[in-house]
Amino acid sequence: MIPLPSADTDTQEDAAPDEGAETEEVDEARGALLEALTSELGDTLVDSHLMAGKDLWIRVTNESWADTADYLRNRQRFRFFDWLSAIDWMQSPYGRSLDAEVDKLVAPLADSDSTDGDATDTDAEGLTGTGADGVTGGDTRFQVIARVYNLATKLGVTLKADVELDGSIATWTNQYPGADWHEREAWEMYGINFEGHPGLRKLYLPGDFEGHPLRKDFPLLARIVKPWPGIVDVEPLPEIPEVGEGS
Description:
The protein has a single domain, classed as Beta Polymerase, domain 2, CATH 3.30.460. The chain is built from five helices and seven strands. It has helices spanning about 30-40, 65-75, 100-110, 180-190, 220-225; strands at about 45-50, 55-60, 80-90, 140-150, 155-165, 170, 195. The relative contact order is 0.15.
């Protein structure tokens, strides 16, 4: 017969740890960086997400976009500029005709994984609800996203900022000259103006081209006439005949 522990011995210190309990991974380097960013940026740091051992995401206000780049480069020594781009969170008004066939297979699986099983609601601008704005959230249809590295510490930071429709944001070319062509592409494809950029001009499209092809409400007529085949283009490998003995 196993004796029950007395009140004196049944303490929290003596209790055996739960083997099934998950322990939170600690990332001291990224944690210290996030603490420094929080202290420096204050209220202009809208949200953050630390993936221990993997990555750090921060979302800053539109007005502090260039100041954040200056702080990271010159005071935190994030001297390597990786990339800058933009995203349009609006749902396509043309339906799934603009999606690849593989997207049609994945979408039902994503809906079945939701907590209530219902499709995500959309607002007046066609923006999806919770989760549509990805890591660290977002309040506008467009967002600018960039990534920089500190090569000494081997840490990277992904930054986001909201941009209004036909709005603008400060250029990063003063802090990271390599952002020049990245911003030109985002301006051309999304219509986002980068204030202070030395020369916003088209990279891909003819000079008289109207519209911004990566906006969700830009009609890609070629796909409407013939939907993007996607996975349909994949052909099975030819069968290899078995080789008999002695051949």
